[in-house]
Design goal:
The complex is a heterodimer of chains A (301) and B (177). In chain A, the strands form 5 sheets. Chain A has a 6-stranded antiparallel beta barrel with strand order 1-2-3-6-5-4. By secondary structure, chain A is α+β, with helices and mostly antiparallel strands. Chain B contains 6 helices and 6 strands; from the N terminus they run E-H-E-E-E-E-H-H-H-H-H-E.
Chain lengths: 301, 177
């Protein structure tokens, strides 16, 4: 047998055990009517953060922390855009806040969750890929695209992901093809205040359903680009309808900036855009048309 | 196994009165008889935990905690609900589309082929169940041109049927903003 003190594998194992013990009190099991639904992260004194998609249509829950303490909790706010749900606890567990960490490609990470059988569960993996800012289907802006090299059950979703130094990378969530993604701590932080004070995150809204299209040859010269966004639907009484946009128009530029992807439009529709006029450059019947819409707040639900 | 009758006795166990009316009407339109929970139903459609003890298999509509023979999404079509009720009575387990398709994800998958406006219009006609001839009439083009666009759509989307083309081409690319 190798000497424990010098053996790197035993050293690694001991370090993982020690990290897990330290993280334990921050991992939440979220129960509804006595059934474990998903996991969460004790983010602040009385706030647990979880994945919105794992917790749809539920407003009250019980939260059991890794140390066994149990609290009643209410949904304080949810943001499908970043998939962040904030639960306010009745009671004030006092976590030692963790420093947030930046993802390093290839670094070892620990993802914690509640396995549903009482205790917390741990997964070890590496940071499989790190990408730039991205926009989710619901229009939320996520600071980094972090994918982990591990699998995860739905019950474990929403728990904290730590790096080797014990720094908090963010919250785990299940993405397309069940890949495990991390919602970065900075993204969670940026939506937490509005979630706690208003229950939601305001985002700009035009009331358009868009689909990327290839412009026919004849229109490319006039538009100065080969792709655009075809307007498949216009919300009744929404900003675009009031501006005179019709289904079938093709959006080629927004506020003077050429657009061919919905995410480019979403970038221009942050909270700061609400109430501001924005110029839409459209193709209608082969001709360029300029309309101005006043960006509204996205209606809830 | 005994044959599943075409007309089932279905109990609609839904707490919200409006939702109950809507679902009961929908079940009746599918040719079933709507009965009370206590009236020996063969199947149950519910959006809530069922308090009463009953041996009939249940189809849960929407995200309801519990163990049900059938589960359909909250926006299930009448045909899906009908099919789910018949299936659970036949002793099968019914699940909606796997949630992995709806996991949190990016706005538009990068690799999706980009269609032309005309292809999108033709695809919308396919979605509405129109024949090439009817689509041609709607769009004011020749059936031959429609056929050309349909073939281009199949190729671009890697689809082998009209239904597959519609599913791949329309459902996943539209973003509301």
């Amino acid at each position: 047998m190798p000497e424990a003190a010098q053996d790197p594998l035993i050293g690694l194992s001991d370090a993982l055990v020690e990290r897990t013990k330290r993280a334990q009190s921050l991992v939440a099991r979220i129960e509804v009517e006595g059934r474990p639904i998903c996991s969460g992260t004790l983010w602040r004194k009385d706030v647990v953060v979880a994945a919105d998609q794992g917790f749809a249509h539920v407003d009250a829950a019980e939260v059991v922390l890794g140390d066994g303490s149990r609290f009643a909790a209410q949904t304080a706010g949810r943001d499908p855009g970043t998939n962040v749900l904030a639960l306010k606890l009745d009671g004030t567990p006092d976590p030692t806040p963790l420093p947030t960490a930046e993802p390093d490609l290839g670094a070892l990470v620990l993802a914690f969750g509640a396995d549903g059988d009482g205790g917390i569960s741990v997964r070890l993996g590496v940071i499989h890929s790190v990408g730039p800012t991205w926009h989710s289907r619901a229009g939320g802006r996520i600071d980094r695209r972090i994918v982990l090299d591990m699998t995860m059950s739905r019950r474990e979703e929403g728990g904290p992901v730590h790096d080797a130094g014990g720094g908090l990378l963010g919250m785990s969530t299940l993405g397309p093809r069940r890949r495990v993604l991390v919602i970065p701590a900075t993204t969670v932080e940026s939506v937490l205040e509005p979630l706690l004070s208003k229950g939601r995150v305001e985002r700009g809204w035009l009331g358009l359903a868009l689909q990327p299209v290839q412009l026919p040859e004849a229109m490319r010269a006039g538009a100065g680009q080969s792709r655009g966004l075809m307007i498949m639907g216009v919300a009744k009484d929404g900003p675009a309808e009031q501006a005179g946009v019709l289904a079938g128009d093709i959006l080629v530029a927004l506020a003077g900036e050429s657009v061919s992807r919905p995410s480019t439009v979403a970038q221009r529709l942050g909270p700061e855009a609400i109430g501001q006029p924005v110029e839409l450059r459209l193709l209608r019947a082969g001709k360029i048309l300029l309309l101005t819409a006043i960006v509204a707040g996205r209606p809830s639900g | 196994m005994s044959e599943v009758p075409s007309r089932l006795r279905v109990a609609v166990a839904v707490s919200d009165a409006t939702a109950r009316c809507r679902l009961a009407a929908l079940v009746a339109r599918s040719g079933h008889e709507v009965v009370e929970l206590t009236d020996a139903p063969e199947a149950i459609l519910t959006d809530d935990a069922i308090d009463e003890m009953t041996s009939a298999p249940a189809v849960a509509i929407g995200p309801v905690a519990g163990d049900f023979a059938g589960r359909v999404p909250p926006d299930a079509t009448p045909q899906q609900i009908d099919a789910a009720l018949r299936a659970v009575v036949a002793g099968l387990t019914v699940r909606g589309p796997s949630p992995q398709h709806r996991n949190f994800g990016p706005m538009v998958e990068e690799a999706w082929p980009v269609l032309t406006p005309r292809e999108i219009e033709v695809l919308a006609a396919l979605r509405d169940g129109l024949s090439n001839k009817a689509a041609a009439r709607r769009l004011g083009i020749s059936p031959h041109t429609v056929k050309f666009h349909v073939e281009a759509l199949f190729k671009k989307l890697g689809a082998t049927s009209r239904a597959e083309a519609v599913a791949k081409g329309l459902r996943r690319q539209i973003v509301e903003i």
